[in-house]
Fold this sequence. Notes:
Helix content of chain B: 25-40%
CATH class of the largest domain in chain B: Alpha Beta
Oligomer: heterodimer
Distance between the termini of chain B: 69 Å
Number of strands of chain B: 10
Amino acid sequence: MTFFLDQLLNGISLGALYALIAVGYTVVYGIVQLINFAHGEVFMIGAFGALSTWIVLGTVTGGSTAWWNLPLMLVGGMVVAVLTAVLMERFAYRPLRNAPRLAPLITAIGISIFLQEFVRLFFGEIPGFPDAKAAIPFPQIDFFTGDPVNVGGVLVHRGNFFVIGALIVCWAFLWWFVNRTATGRAMQAVSQDPDTSRLMGIDVDRIIVVAFAVGAALAAVAGVAHGLRYGNIDFRMGFLAGLKAFTAAVLGGIGNINGAVVGGLTLGVVEAMATAFMPGQFGGPSWKDVWAFVLLILILVFRPQGLVGAKVVDRA
Amino acid sequence: MSIDSPVAGAAASGHEVGKREMLVASHVTMRFGGLVAVDDVSLTVHTGEIVGLIGPNGAGKTTFFNCLTGLYKPTSGEVRFADRLLPPKPRQVVVAGMARTFQNIRLFPNMTALENVMVGRYCRTSSMAVTSILRGPKYRREEAETRERAVELLEYVGMKGQGGHLARNLPYGDQRRLEIARALATDPQLLLLDEPTAGMNPQETRQAEELIFKIRDSGMAIVVIEHDMRFIFNLCDRVSCLVRGKTLVEGTAAQVQSDPRVIEAYIGSPEGEDGAENA
């Protein structure tokens, strides 16, 4: 039983990580019907942004790992990720707004490779920064990486609290933002009918930028969560995480924020359970990606609109 | 709570067509490849005036609207609005003070009636994503004003207390009225109505007529596309009839109504003439 709970929690925290990234895919898709395949890289850049913030802070604090570093790292990561996403939208996607669907898709692959290589080659060139050609240890913030906490007999890694808490906070924030603010209202309008929105005086381009920025901010949170959970980050981390998060978004119903959260958690739990309980040679970590994508195929065959239903951003 | 006029300080008691030229469209031509959808159409609208645009299906009425609202860029000709050349982007057209409704209702279906109207206010507020999150005093004041104004406008179009319904669940007549409320929320000086009574029963049509008069009396200029001739002739100070993209006749409602060419355009030429042509 303890083992089961352990795995369940493991799956939920992994799923929360996917969900945080998946929301970025879904919000952008809901607004412009564009799959931003470079979103995984925004997640990676967010993690590197947080790491950079910590390194820069370290020149003053001497490498402190006290809890108060974390909010500063989050802000730093978000700023870098949002900036990347906004520039990406402005210079790579906006010129292709009316191009055939395939064009932005290919562009996304280009952006992905560009961002990965950029980090790989240039991160270490900055004085005082570690070389990024291999995995870099992520600062272990005492409060979230100390000894596991005993919750009713289950030993819980503290990083899990961070990622699950982050998901709850971000989800609540997003719901509030979309449903209770003027900008959110405009986002709903654009997702339901961009042409009419334009004719009602909404600056659609600006709303698209907002969608990219919101997704990037959440991806940066996920990047920090990843660093705390696994202890290191590398320039390739965005690829598989991005793919899994995209799977999660489709699983829940692309375009639907709740769907992204449900899809992410489902995917995480299925992966963890399959790893732990699949018998014989089909179990274990080497097969977890297989089960994740088997789940995707099953959903696409039997419920193509996703678990929650493919709907636009409206009613978050 | 009550507002007499959707345009601040422009309430007019009696009906008088204003002197000011609100919209001057001159020689507007819109070509799609070989098809000339709108061919050299000119139209002038004054403040406090209702101008009707009639014509058989496919005459180019809606295309002409689209040229006015920046959705299409006319192939040639120019549109001046409030003495300024109209900007070519839909958003800028709205900001300049021109709002429209649609032939096929285009509300935001999954938002409430109130939210639909509030979206119309968006272009008149300075709200940005960051201010939405930070909620400074200015944002909160604007948001409160937006809500208050939206409630007023719903009442103005006769939908008091229905703000909470999702737009897609509203009865057809209310959806048309909601579109007008949403358009008014952008603070327009010129209102373009594309078949505002399509699909309405006689009672709803009469209500729509009263509403449009009320808006006209507030000093707004209105252009209305309609097929319901009685509605047009009750409502309009001037009528322009488009046929195959060209202005066939322009004049007072009575002049246009009795013009044989208009009748011919709608119901075809008498049989005898057809016979003569064939011979």
